[in-house]
Amino acid sequence: xxxxxxxxxxxYRSYIREIRRLPHAYLRRxxxxxxxxxxxxxxxxxxxxxxxxKLRRVSKTIQKVxxxxxxxxxxxxxxxxxxxxxxxxxxxxxxxPLLFDPNAPLPPPIxxxxxxxxxxxxxxxxxALLTSGLSxxxxxxxxxxDDLSFPPILxxxxxxxxxxxxxxxPFSKRREVNAxxxxxxxxxxxxxxxLQISVSPSREVSDEGSELGASAAVRKIGFxxxxxxxxxxxxxxxxxxxxxASSPRRWLRRRYQELLGRLPILTFFSSPNDMKIKGGSGFLxxxxxxxxxxxxxxxxxxxxxxxxxxxxxxxxxxxxxx
Length: 322
Known about the structure:
- This protein is mainly α.
- Helices cover 51% and strands 4% of the residues.
- It has helices at residues 3-20, 25-44, 48-69, 73-83, 89-99, 124-130, 145-149, 163-168, 173-188, 208-217, 228-235, 249-261, 306-321; strands at 197-200, 265-269, 283-286.
- The protein has a 3-stranded mixed beta sheet with strand order 1-2-3, covered by helices on one side.
């Protein structure tokens, strides 16, 4: 074993020691796999400078895990984000199936005869996620359906019926294609992916066959068929055996409640009568009732009523007298 291999082996042993201190089996399983992948990638790297760079990144991850085990809530939140696909490679693996619908017809090309000029097609699942504040990153606002059909980064001139197009002439079709794809890429990256797609049970008891058909029609993504989501919800409600952990159980429960606030639940409605959303897409984004409501949900504030205005005028007058 040469010096480079000895260094990687030493880093791997340090990684495993910190992983054993993580409080729950799922976290230990995920980070053990990550440690193996990271150290194998370093072993396969022949260039010394690139290998050192990869080892530095691994060492930073070890420091994050150590800080999380020592009770740093920001570090622990980052560990949870990696393990549950809020950041990193797992996020891409959860989002990738939702970016395109293989069963949907392709939109016509913007430039006639140019297959590469087809605009992006938003799947029903992605449309629901983009238009909900519950599934968007903290500083990203929910989109409206008009933003998907005509991205706001396009000038009014891109609409052939607009006055700008009539005065200045038509907008470049190639620039329109590029703008639409740019908007598609920048917006889906602001989405927090669900762990799986749930199916809402039909309210029509005689429609059991259609309910089974709807379950089969919904695409299987991420952790479908596992109990990862159920175990996560359980950790926010009951004390769990945290062998090897030094953090208090109440502190851990709050971290998982914060995680649920960053984890949208995507539900498919099999019957139009069950749907609670407009547009008829069949999907609804919600959050777990156990989630800690600390995130900006992106929804508009309600309009003030006449009673609200009267109360505000009265309160302002009393404050002016004092």
